[in-house]
Design a protein that fits this description.
Layout (H helix, E strand, L loop, with lengths): L1 H17 L25 E3 L2 E8 L42 E4 L16 E8 L7 E7 L5 E6 L2 E7 L5 E4 L9 E8 L24 E7 L2 E9 L6 E9 L8 E4 L4 E4 L5 E5 L13 E6 L4 E6 L4 E4 L2 E4 L2 E2 L2 E6 L13 H15 L3 E4 L6 H10 L2 E5 L11 H18 L5 E8 L8 H15 L4 E5 L2 E3 L4 E4 L2 H6 L3 E4 L16 E2 L7 E5 L18 H16 L5 E4 L7 E2 L12 E2 L12 H11 L2
Parallel strand pairs: 21-22, 21-31, 22-23, 23-24, 24-25, 27-29, 28-30, 30-31
Antiparallel strand pairs: 1-10, 2-3, 2-4, 4-9, 5-8, 5-10, 6-7, 6-9, 11-12, 12-15, 13-14, 13-16, 16-17, 18-19, 19-20, 26-27, 32-33
Helix pairs in contact: 2-3, 4-5, 7-8
Bound molecules: (2S,3S,4S,5R)-3,4,5-trihydroxy-6-oxo-oxane-2-carboxylic acid.
The site of (2S,3S,4S,5R)-3,4,5-trihydroxy-6-oxo-oxane-2-carboxylic acid (GCB) has 9 residues, from loops.
Length: 609
């Protein structure tokens, strides 16, 4: 008897499932359009501002009722409205939803989203004036982590990766009034992602960077590359890529200040003898450059420099340079924190670096926003640019590799004309000997060199002891492949107490420049006490003093340092209540911008370099 009741219930449950409306799956992966160079220099509409936003923990707006989640046509991309027609069963309404600021992370805008990891749907309405004979692109400077975008009910495509730009062509899809742009952003961490599930920074979610509707002519300049020829720096060399049909003879590059009007050959390349003033930290000279075709023209500011190594020296414009650096995460320099954006944030942060005496910043551990790179370029600050291949990536997964490679390509694609970027880094502290790791990282380094032969290629490696007191780079395979030996070390913090620095010396197996890409220790601003108490400003200052003395003993092979880190930054790994409170405290300034004692110590050391 009991059995038959259960059976009856099961059958009725099945049949009620079957009565749910049939829903068509959508192709969420039509792809994105290739990058467009220098979008901010083009005409268009900036879509920044308040966007309506719905939090969707269970992905209700996206998937069918089936067990296997299949994105369906009837999803929230349709932008339906309960209030417009209450006779319909519609369980969402973007017009009624609260808003979030774009650009911006959601974590610092709504207290209940502080630790949120999941999906938020954004909706922005806009009017525009689409013209015949023009092309239109929706360009996202960055959104973390997975984005699916839809316009006027149609899904445009999907993008993965939190820190690189992407765009979708929307020519023919725009209306004059009331366009509905819907963007689903999901920041859940997954083992196959880049970065993977465990990393020491806050997993800020959302449309963290600006969004633009970009207008171009039918045939437009999609990309250009302009710089000194690394083979012979008496020449300016480059290439121009045109998208669409164009009279090949009409393409040129002009640099009025140098009296140059350079014709571009049929294959898109150009090369001309010229000796522009070199860009350098002392004189960050940028030239106005105009790239034109018969249909399009675009203006940019370009600096000219060479960067190379010779033995254990780094040469900028042919002369040895010591990289006086500091590491930086992309967080706001003031206020409630969260992801930084815009030139003002960049300038405040970089002014602290300048005050320290820096000529170099390591932008960790992912590509920072374009304003940061451009502001640093104007201020004469060299940049280490990195992709988030961090710690334990899924080395043998081809999907993970393709993702890392795409992030590298998009990073180089966006910034290859920024002369202040001197190093492309493909990874940070990855475990030596992990199966597949060597092929993965060698592949990325080869890719970086293939895409851009005018810069150095590196990765932040780790250290090991050969004896109790003799330390070295613990990464023969990457050291061999990279242009520089760059490594992180934490003598005095994770590795003993600061006194240990007094008896550690360093040796390196190859005659390449060595950069210490991290060292440091935590201190809470205003927390004072004995200098052997962790987290006091006194401890951090002593750690710096003794570390710097130890690094000086490396001698001429030391080509640069980038201590960890300029400013305290949020990390869920930092749980010490009263001191850390969700902040990694290794900053030389607090999250409010207050300078700790060790700031002065590093400043004095850099003044003597
Ligand atoms: C490291 C990592 C960095 C961490 C830092 C720390 O080695 O590269 O991302 O935040 O140590 O503070 O532990």
């Amino acid at each position: 008897m009991k059995k038959s009741i259960i059976l009856f219930l099961a059958i009725s449950a099945l049949s009620s499932c079957a009565q749910k409306p049939q829903q068509e799956p959508i192709d969420i992966n039509p792809g994105t359009y290739p990058q467009i160079g220098h979008v901010t220099g083009r005409t268009g509409i900036c879509l920044d501002g308040q966007w309506n936003a719905l939090v969707d923990i269970y992905e209700t707006g996206y998937y069918s009722y089936r067990r296997t989640p299949i994105p369906v046509e009837s999803s929230w991309f349709k932008d339906r409205s309960y209030y417009a027609d209450p006779t319909q069963l519609i369980e969402y309404d973007f017009d009624a939803a609260p808003t979030l600021q774009v650009p911006g992370d959601w974590n610092t805008q709504r207290p209940e989203l502080y630790m949120y990891e999941g999906t938020v749907w954004y909706r922005r309405k806009f009017d525009c004036n689409p013209e015949e004979g023009k092309r239109y692109f929706l360009y996202f400077e960055g959104a973390n982590y997975e984005t699916v975008a839809g316009l006027n009910g149609e899904v445009l495509g999907r993008h993965e990766g939190g820190f690189t730009p992407f765009c979708f062509e929307v020519t023919g899809k725009l209306k004059e009034k009331d366009n509905s742009l819907i963007v689903k952003v999901d920041n859940r961490r997954r083992p196959e992602n880049v970065p993977t599930v465990n990393f020491d920074w806050w997993n800020y979610g959302g449309i963290t960077r600006s969004v633009h509707l970009v207008e171009t002519p039918e045939s437009f300049i999609r990309d250009y590359s302009i710089g000194l020829d690394p083979e012979d720096p008496d020449y300016i060399k480059g290439s121009v890529t045109i998208d669409g049909a164009c009279d090949p003879g009409s393409v040129s590059v002009s640099i009025p200040e140098l009296d140059l009007l350079i014709p571009v050959a049929q294959d898109g390349s150009f090369r001309v003898k010229s000796s522009p003033e070199r860009w350098s930290p002392e004189s960050p000279k940028l030239y106005k450059v105009c790239v034109s075709s018969s249909a399009d023209s675009i203006t940019d500011s370009i600096g000219f420099r060479t960067i190379e190594t010779a033995g254990h020296q780094i040469l900028l414009n042919g002369k040895p340079v010591f990289l006086k650096g500091i590491c930086i995460h992309e967080e706001k320099p003031s206020g409630s924190g969260g992801r930084a954006s815009g030139a003002d944030d960049a300038r405040i942060t970089l002014n602290w670096a300048k005050e320290l005496g820096c000529n170099f910043v390591r932008l960790a551990h992912y590509p920072h926003n374009e304003d940061m790179i451009r502001t640093a370029e104007q201020m004469g600050i060299m940049v280490w640019s990195e992709i988030p291949v961090y710690w334990t990536i899924d080395w043998t997964n081809p999907v993970t590799y393709a993702n890392a490679c795409a992030q590298l390509e998009d990073n180089i694609g966006r910034d290859h004309n920024r002369c202040n970027i001197i190093i492309w880094s493909v990874a940070n502290e990855t475990p030596v000997g992990a199966p597949g790791r060597k092929e993965f990282l060698y592949g990325l380094m080869d890719k970086a060199r293939e895409l851009d032969g005018s810069r150095l290629v590196a990765a932040a490696m780790e250290k090991a002891y050969l004896t109790d007191s003799l330390a070295t780079i613990n990464d023969a395979e990457l050291f061999e492949k990279a242009d520089v030996g760059s490594f992180n070390q934490y003598v005095g913090w994770y590795d003993g107490t600061p006194e240990k620095c007094n008896h550690v010396s360093w040796t390196f197996s190859l005659d390449k420049p060595v950069i210490v890409t991290e060292f440091g220790g935590g201190a809470k601003y205003g927390y004072h006490g004995p200098d052997d108490w962790r987290f006091t400003e006194e401890y951090q200052q002593r750690l710096y003093t003794l570390n710097l003395a130890m690094l000086d003993r490396i001698g001429p092979q030391l080509a640069g340092t980038a201590p960890w880190i300029l400013k305290d930054f949020r990390s869920p790994k930092r749980a010490l209540t009263g001191i850390q409170d969700d902040y990694n405290r290794k900053g030389l300034v607090s999250e409010k911008g207050e300078k700790k004692a060790a700031f002065q110590t590093l400043k004095e050391w850099y003044a003597g370099k």
